[in-house]
Write a sequence for this structure.
């Protein structure tokens, strides 16, 4: 589903954000992407979303070669990807419902279905009672869940998240990862970037580790049980 | 189950419900930036008002010319002491020339009465005179397009040379002069209105540019979630079109108001000099053209801004 072949990204002559990165994420997989700050995680996600182009190498997402993708095709490609950003990227002047409704407008969903779909997406993240609230009126965790609802509203083929638990407490973090797990069970391929080691250790998922722009490790983590003997996610790996 | 997208080709670039979205967003953005939008609308309205004023003057001049062209008049004025025989000779001359035979004799008394009717405010002046200053005359109606100009000039010269004839006047020279004036008015209107409309379009372009700066983050989010450039640009284009259209409607309303005021102000004096400039308002085709001009200027302004933005992003 996501294929990186010897991808290098340089922003200028002196800084290489990614160096010869090769990996694959298969359809239906749930993979963590980790690494310290500045390791190149965000650059890698930007490449997947075709916000930037690689300096060298090829990227294929859902069968599309991003290198040869024409500018006009990019919006349609992005509609196949649910993206969750660390800073949420919600439109602040719009209510929660309007934020979701805008995506549905982009996706050409008839307006009469917007309310129902928005409600369903928000119910999945437990925020169906916040339809008329504005993002600044919500807590960080709530805003992140709205962003997730927006990413999931169209059942995307690929779900990509950039530090979705970055600013959240552990309980809320595992709750949010569980939402991703449920989306993964419904068929979405998930790539979740995080530097939260605890979250990764308890996941039992494949982990790709970046260090100074290089892929240094790719391994499967065994599920660590909590003191009560439960997986932190409650759901097995895909 | 995750939705399968096999190809984007069959998908419409602008979903059917986006026109409503464009319009709603455009109105909302105009409302949010009321002051700058007002400046843009005022600029468009002023430039179209000026263009419309030129069009209105030209329209009324053109009507006058058309009317005069259709039934031009030659006036043959007699000397005060012209004899009945001399008058009869002229009558016979006119009757023998097909171009001039549609004629009407005006006695001095009839000429005086006509003057008093046309210039009511000057009738007191005439009443103070000892004798009627108006000579007898023939009013000859000619169809301008139906005659040979060279032959006509020859006939006028012969009439002037006839004994008892004081003066022969005809209004073609005025018509020709008016036609030239109309051309100048139209050209001046087009140049002034065009320059101002262009300035207004650039004002709108700057207003839209400001709005786009305000919505920069939002635009970035829209791009990231898969909005096409057309969906992103649509509300801005509609914003310009709405501002231009409102400007056009305001210009027409203002022009009509000024026209009505001028007509009412000039009506009591029945001024022959200015009155004919305010006989009729613009026909609906020209009104529609003015509003369409506003719409076009608005579209041009917003198009310039969104185009720049796209180049910047490329």
């Amino acid at each position: 589903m996501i294929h990186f072949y010897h991808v290098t990204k340089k922003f200028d002559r002196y800084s290489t954000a990614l160096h010869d990165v090769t990996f694959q994420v298969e359809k239906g997989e749930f993979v963590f992407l980790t690494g310290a700050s500045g390791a190149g995680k965000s650059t890698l996600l930007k490449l997947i979303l075709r916000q930037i182009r690689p300096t060298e190498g090829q990227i294929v997402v859902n069968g599309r070669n991003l290198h040869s993708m024409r500018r006009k095709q990019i919006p349609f490609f992005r509609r196949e990807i649910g993206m969750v950003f660390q800073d949420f990227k919600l439109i602040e002047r719009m209510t929660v419902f309007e934020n979701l409704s805008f995506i549905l407008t982009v996706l050409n969903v008839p307006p009469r279905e917007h309310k129902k779909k928005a409600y369903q997406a928000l119910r999945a993240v437990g925020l169906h009672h916040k339809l008329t609230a504005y993002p600044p009126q919500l807590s960080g965790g709530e805003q992140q869940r709205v962003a997730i609802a927006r990413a999931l509203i169209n059942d995307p083929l690929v779900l990509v998240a950039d530090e979705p638990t970055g600013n959240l407490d552990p309980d809320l973090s595992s709750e949010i990862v569980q939402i991703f797990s449920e989306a993964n069970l419904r068929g979405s391929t998930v790539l979740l970037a995080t530097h939260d080691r605890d979250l990764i250790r308890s996941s039992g998922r494949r982990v790709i580790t970046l260090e100074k722009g290089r892929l240094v490790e790719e391994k499967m983590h065994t599920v660590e049980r909590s003191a009560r003997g439960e997986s932190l996610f409650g759901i097995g790996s895909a | 189950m995750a939705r399968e997208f096999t190809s984007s080709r069959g998908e419409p670039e602008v979903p059917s419900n986006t026109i409503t979205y464009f319009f709603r967003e455009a109105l909302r953005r105009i409302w949010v930036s009321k002051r700058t939008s007002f400046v843009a609308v005022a600029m468009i309205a002023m430039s179209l008002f000026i263009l419309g004023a030129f069009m209105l003057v030209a329209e009324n001049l053109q009507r006058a010319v058309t009317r005069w062209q259709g039934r031009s008049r030659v006036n043959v004025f007699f000397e005060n002491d012209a004899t009945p025989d001399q008058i009869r000779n002229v009558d016979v001359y006119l009757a023998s020339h097909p171009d001039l035979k549609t004629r009407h004799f005006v006695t001095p008394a009839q000429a005086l009465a006509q003057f008093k009717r046309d210039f009511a405010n000057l009738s007191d002046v005439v009443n103070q005179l000892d004798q009627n200053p108006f000579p007898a005359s023939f009013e000859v109606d000619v169809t301008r397009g139906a005659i040979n100009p060279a032959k006509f000039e020859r006939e006028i010269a012969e009439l002037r040379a006839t004994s008892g004839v004081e003066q022969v006047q005809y209004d073609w020279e005025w018509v020709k002069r008016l036609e030239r004036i109309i051309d100048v008015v139209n050209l001046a209107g087009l140049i002034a209105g065009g320059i101002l409309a262009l300035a207004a379009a650039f004002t709108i372009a700057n207003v839209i540019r400001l709005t786009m700066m305000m919505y920069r983050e939002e635009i970035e989010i829209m791009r990231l979630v898969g909005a096409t450039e057309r969906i992103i640009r649509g509300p801005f284009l509609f914003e310009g079109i709405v501002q231009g259209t409102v400007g056009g409607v305001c210009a027409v309303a203002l022009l009509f108001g000024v026209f009505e005021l001028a007509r009412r102000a000039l009506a009591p004096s029945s001024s022959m000099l200015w009155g004919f400039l305010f006989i009729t308002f613009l026909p609906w085709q020209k009104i529609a053209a003015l509003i369409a001009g506003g719409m076009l200027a608005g579209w041009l302004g917003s198009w310039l801004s969104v185009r720049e933005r796209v180049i910047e992003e490329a």
Summary: The beta strands of chain A are 2-12, 15-25, 30-34, 56-61, 64-65, 81-84, 158-162, 189-193, 206-211, 214-220.
